[in-house]
Amino acid sequence: MVAGEEAGQVDRREVRQRPVAHAPTLPEPQRRERRVAGGRRRAYHRAMYFDALSFLEDEREAWRPYEALAELSPGQLEVPVAGLDQWSGRDLVAHLTFWLEHVLDVARELALGETSPAHQRMEAEWAARGDALNAEIIASWRALPLADVLERFRRVPGELRGYLTVVPEARWLKNAAFQRLFTSETIDHYAEHEADLRAILDAVT
Q: pLDDT tier at 84 (50, 70, 90 boundaries)?
C-alpha cells in the first residue's frame, strides 16, 4: 500500500483553500506498498484538502470503478489474474476492505478523541512485518465466506464516509498526518490498484 508521497515530488493538483496554521501533527504514516501489476510502484500527485466535502467527493469518485467487483459471480471472483502475486478479484476485495476497515477504526477513535491507538498499533506492526502482513491478510480472508467478504466490501466505504462527516475536521482534515493517512488508504490506494482492477475485469468479463 502507499502512504505519503515520494521524496522530491511536486504536487501539481490545485490547493483548494488556504491551509490552517498550527494544526497538530503526527509522525508520517509509513509506506505500505504491495507489488502491483507490471511490477512497478506508482507515485501520486495529491491535493492538500481543506474542506471535507472535496475529499469525500474525490474519494467517492475514485472508489466507483471498484464497485464492479461486487457484480462478479463467485466463479469470476476466484480467477487468479492480477499482478505478480496473481491476485483474484476476491483477493483485491479483501485487501482493499481490510485497509478501509483499518482507517474506519481510526475514524471511530478520532470521533471520540484526538489520538488513535489503532493507527499507532498498525504503524508498529507494519514496521515489524512489512508486506508479509498483506500476505497474511489475503490468506486469512480466503478462509471467510464469500458472502461475508462482499458484505463488508459493500458496507465499509460508506460507513467510513459517514464517520468522516462527524469527526471534527481539526482531528483529521486539518491534521496533516491524519489527512495523509486517510488519503493514502483511500484515494491513493485505489489509484495504486487500478491496473489490478483492469486485469481482473478484462480476464473475467
A: low
